[in-house]
Amino acid sequence: MIIRRIKCLKYLGTRYNSSHYVTTPIFYVNAAPHIGHLYSAVIADAHCRYQRLRYPELDVRLCTGTDEHGTKIQQAASLHGVPVAKYCDDISQRYREVFSSASIQQDDFIRTTEDRHKRAVANFWRTLYTRGHIYSAAYSGWYCVSDETFLTDSQLRLDEATGTRYSLESGHPVEWTEETNYMFRLSQFQDDVRHWVKTEARIRPAKFEKILLDTLSEPLPDVSVSRPSNRVHWAIPVPDDDSQTVYVWLDALVNYLSSVGYPDEKFSVHWPPAQQVIGKDILKFHGIYWPAFLLAAGLEPPGQLYVHSHWTVDGQKMSKSKHNVVDPLKAAQQYTMEGLRYFLLREGVAHSDGNYSHVKAQRILNSELADTLGNLLSRASAKSLNPGQIYPSTSAEHLADLLRSLDAAKRLQDSLLQLSERCASHYECNHFHLVADTTMAALHAANNFFESSKPWTLKAGAPDGNQARLETIIAMTMNALRLSGIVLQPIIPQLANRLLDKLSVPTAQRGWNYLAESFATSPNSSNSNPGFGESRQLDGQTSALLFQRILEETAAKEVKEQKPQPAKRSKSKKKERRETMS
């Protein structure tokens, strides 16, 4: 097999250089961006932010961009009554704006209409052609314009009433096409692609590996890699044959090479990608066609494909016909973009479709960001409790006593001791929902400790006033906030930075290694502020209000319209009053 013959290929899991190249799919500009597109981008961004945080010596590179060729683009531009080039410019810019708003930290935003990409596609085509992997032939088959792909009879369903055939996977209609195209000898690479797929952790989650292997269990037909230019003119011309244009998927896949400088030799510094984040709908193209194209060109396939599922809206598939497509910028007006990032990564799991619902988003963001995280910072930095506005150091005597005598203090210590290892394990697998789970568990423990230790009884002037013990409680609480802020930087970078700014944590002390330094790991030390020395002043320019609770407009109206209730004080009211006082 070719994999065994090409000795230079080293894609068996070993990192041979310091590069960590990650890609999102490039997004098709036939429509404006929605939360599914943003989900792909925040997965890749959070992954890259974690890699930089955990492995500062790595050269981490993230590429995203837009796919701008093909029949669907021609049709969309015509529908909007604008030239195709202008249409592509406008939609591509909207993707840039969404990603900028969402703090996507890409190193490159590539467009398939750029000259550097066209040059890369031409070189890649010539390489395949020179190596004998492309040939010309008459071709006929069922073509799906919406999916930009030919389909076999087994991939179709027939509507008996209308006689129309549809893609089984996407549900889009197909049309019979007969034309002379260039074909790629995909059948010759079936064994090599199967070998690549079966390599440990190549495709994640594992369910998508099984899907690919099921497809590969049947003979693969050769595939068309060009279309007649009189049918698809908005595309890259086939080198040395203007009568044909390059098939949109071959064109699009080469973007991952274009972004790192292919065909110039410098591209090899970053090649192959460590991880390519894709949606499940494009698994075949990335899991079968892409490795086959690369092997045919003598290049390494990617280290891993990370495949995520889709988003429904209130249990229904997102579609323009249902008018339920969620615009990220509009959603961010209600939840903030940090809140939207958190919800997508908190609620989404790669192996199953996520459900976007306003009720769920409001509940999660209010409960976790506003209450569990934000309220704890507000309480620990309240002027009534912390008039000096400091991040204090601990008293060794009181720290030891609290850990010995208060179960909530010991539970907090145990939770913080596990935070780094558990979250690192979850981040390595892109299990961002479990990172959030683990971090929120630590913050729940911190809230419980704060409540159980009753710091408001220790204030100056109180019968049991004890400044040293009070400052130790505040320091332990701020330790939990500091560690949580460090861990959450890849998921909610702006919010985490504001938290760390408020705590006056220097930028140089926000790395993953600083999770090992706290009262939890060094309970006998008098300094719970590693690198700080003595107590440190909080940042007065940064608000202690991290995340504003989301109040439903209709709910707010109902509250105003409610009749006054009897003046009976409930336990919850007592607790609310105590929190306000503290």
TrEMBL record:
Enzyme Commission no: 6.1.1.10
Entry-linked CDD domains: MetRS_core (cd00814)
GO annotations of cellular component type: mitochondrion
Region annotated Disordered, chain positions: 555-582
GO BP, one annotated term: methionyl-tRNA aminoacylation
Single GO term (MF): ATP binding
Record field: compositional bias (Basic residues): 566-576
Pfam name, any one: tRNA-synt_1g
Limits of the Methionyl/Leucyl tRNA synthetase domain: 20-380
Catalyzed reaction equations: tRNA(Met) + L-methionine + ATP = L-methionyl-tRNA(Met) + AMP + diphosphate
Protein's UniProt keywords contain Glycoprotein: no
Signal sequence, renumbered to the chain: none
Keywords: Aminoacyl-tRNA synthetase, ATP-binding, Ligase, Nucleotide-binding, Protein biosynthesis
Enzyme class, first EC level, given as a word: ligase
Record-stated family: Belongs to the class-I aminoacyl-tRNA synthetase family.
PANTHER family: METHIONINE--TRNA LIGASE, MITOCHONDRIAL (PTHR43326:SF1), METHIONYL-TRNA SYNTHETASE (PTHR43326)
Protein name, as recorded: Methionine--tRNA ligase, mitochondrial
Organism: Drosophila sechellia
